Amino acid sequence: MRYRTLFAIVGPLVLWAAFFTLFYSVQAVGCRAGWDATLLGGVSFLRLATIVLLVISVIAAGALYIYARSLPDNAGVASLARYSALAGFLSTILVFSGVIWLQLC
Asked: Residue 62: CA atoms inside 13 Å, Cβ hemisphere, count?
């Protein structure tokens, strides 16, 4: 039971850090490989790849938030897990949503 709560507290922020690394890796590889010049339906392949990554990251962060909300409240630890999951979810949306309108390369 303790590991479940620990995962709920630390998991969302570790997931955010992993997605942060993945976003910059995809962007660096895409810029170097010329994905920004390859168009699919009028949109660059790099932008499509980062938007798909954005959707996946929001879904994963949202799933961890829903998981944290289902934890039984034991001495306030579950509320800490909820706040951590909410912080991970909101920061995922705030930080990564720039791939929709910002210049990628």
From this structure: 7
3-state secondary structure the chain: CHHHHHHHHHHHHHHHHHHHHHHHHHHHHHHHHCCCCCEECCEEHHHHHHHHHHHHHHHHHHHHHHHHHCCCCCCCHHHHHHHHHHHHHHHHHHHHHHHHCCCCC
83 phi/psi in degrees, rounded to 5? -65, -40
Mean pLDDT of 28-42: 91
pTM for the model: 0.86
Strand 39-40 versus strand 43-44 pairing type: antiparallel
pLDDT digits (tens, 9 = 90+) for 50-102: 999 999 999 999 998 998 888 877 767 778 888 999 999 999 999 999 999 98
